[in-house]
């Protein structure tokens, strides 16, 4: 169930004789899974890309249709002269000297061209489906990495905000002491400089957050005024899932499941069917003819039948046949390259994940808590003047560096896990 928290921020400016103004902003708090469900349902690029499948299916419908018959009416005389022959009237007394011809033509495909075209277009539908799945795969990993990055930025903001709050409390306490001369002004300025550094860091992180908000809200098709917040669940993927990962099985999975690999196989199949269709074009089609002629032949009412076909003396579709045969060779090369690319990408993604996993596992589970507790201890000792400012600020910098390393390891583990899923074309 979606957890949506609506938080309204009201800013009221009141003065005598002036009206009150209020602005409101909605916050959407969701988990990663809930955010992805919204993305899959609402993303406009996905909806647009999916229409390519409908277009390909429409081409199959078109290939099934026979060409329309052609009706031709001609040689209608609008007046007559003294030498005009008298014929039985067409209607009442009208039409005694009127001539008219009517022709009907129907094109008949030979050499099973229609069925071959339908078979080719059906493969086109399969290709469109695989292209859609590949587009979804690319867009999904982009979306998931943006989610991870947003979680990373929000967690980093939380760390810096805590440090900024601590520094500001110390500044409030030291302000009067500096004025009274109990502490040196240099120490106070150094503390003030640290505050400014934190403010600058938070400003940069907020800009990064704003950029991610824009990207994610566009992908999820959310209103511009909405503020997106992702809960920290699933920021780190389940490490236990990675224990059973087998490289040989992953490579086989990639060749079996990746949409771009499957599409390359279908491209070869499509070009083979196109080659057969171009071969069938050597056989000329037949046009069946039926005609009626009133008053223009040896008979007053002449009815005749016939046929027409191109004589393949000069063109037997040689150029198109050769071109389609070359397309088969090209698609074979592309299929082989796509297979090699997929296998190489799996190996790289697997090895990168192993490295990221080792880094994450080298950080003991209790280390982050110990780091937080040690920071609190340094803050208390500094407030009691048991620790010098230089020692305190050095530890704060070391604390922030280590916190960043821990967050980076979690972020990278998530991103490389998603990359592995991306290159094998399925969820692990």
UniProtKB/TrEMBL annotation:
Pfam families: OEP. Keywords: Coiled coil. Transmembrane segments: none annotated. It comes from Flavobacterium endophyticum. One of its GO terms (molecular function) is efflux transmembrane transporter activity. This is Cobalt-zinc-cadmium efflux system outer membrane protein. Residues 195-222 form a coiled coil. PANTHER family: OUTER MEMBRANE CATION EFFLUX PROTEIN (PTHR30203), OUTER MEMBRANE EFFLUX PROTEIN (PTHR30203:SF23). Belongs to the outer membrane factor (OMF) (TC 1.B.17) family.
């Amino acid at each position: 169930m979606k957890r949506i928290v609506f938080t309204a921020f009201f800013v009221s400016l009141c003065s005598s004789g002036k009206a009150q103004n209020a602005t409101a902003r909605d916050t959407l708090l969701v988990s990663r899974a809930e955010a992805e469900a919204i993305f899959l349902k609402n993303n406009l690029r996905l909806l647009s890309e999916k229409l390519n499948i409908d277009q390909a299916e429409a081409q199959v419908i078109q290939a099934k249709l026979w060409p329309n018959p052609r009706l031709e009416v001609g040689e209608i005389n609008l007046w007559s002269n003294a030498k005009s022959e008298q014929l039985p009237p067409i209607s009442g007394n009208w039409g005694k000297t009127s001539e008219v011809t009517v022709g009907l033509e129907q094109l008949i495909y030979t050499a099973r061209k229609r069925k071959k075209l339908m078979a080719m277009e059906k493969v086109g539908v399969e290709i469109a489906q695989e292209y859609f799945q590949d587009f979804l795969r690319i867009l999904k990993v982009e979306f998931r990495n943006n989610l991870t990055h947003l979680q990373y930025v929000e967690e980093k903001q939380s760390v810096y905000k805590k440090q900024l709050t601590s520094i500001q409390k110390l500044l409030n306490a030291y302000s009067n002491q500096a004025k009274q001369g109990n502490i040196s002004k240099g120490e106070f300025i150094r503390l003030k400089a640290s505050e400014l550094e934190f403010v600058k860091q938070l400003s940069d992180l907020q800009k990064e957050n704003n950029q991610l908000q824009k990207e994610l809200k566009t992908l999820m098709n959310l209103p511009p005024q909405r503020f997106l917040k992702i809960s920290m669940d699933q920021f780190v993927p389940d490490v236990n899932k990675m224990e059973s990962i087998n490289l040989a099985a992953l490579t086989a999975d990639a060749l079996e499941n990746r949409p771009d690999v499957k599409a390359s196989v279908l491209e070869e199949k499509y070009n083979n069917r196109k080659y057969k269709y171009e071969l069938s074009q050597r056989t000329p089609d037949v046009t069946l003819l039926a005609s009626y002629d009133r008053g223009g032949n040896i008979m007053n009412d002449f009815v005749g039948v016939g046929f027409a076909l191109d004589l393949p003396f000069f063109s037997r579709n040689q150029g198109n046949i050769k071109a389609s045969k070359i397309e088969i060779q090209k698609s074979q090369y592309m299929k082989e390259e796509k297979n090699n690319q997929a296998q190489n990408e799996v190996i790289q993604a697997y090895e990168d994940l192993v490295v990221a996993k080792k880094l994450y596992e080298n950080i003991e589970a209790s280390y982050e808590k110990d780091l937080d507790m040690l920071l609190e201890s340094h803050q208390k000792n500094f407030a009691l003047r048991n620790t010098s400012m230089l020692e305190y600020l050095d530890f704060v910098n070391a604390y922030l560096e280590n916190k960043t390393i821990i967050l980076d390891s979690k972020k990278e583990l998530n991103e490389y896990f998603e990359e592995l899923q991306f290159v094998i074309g399925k969820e692990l």
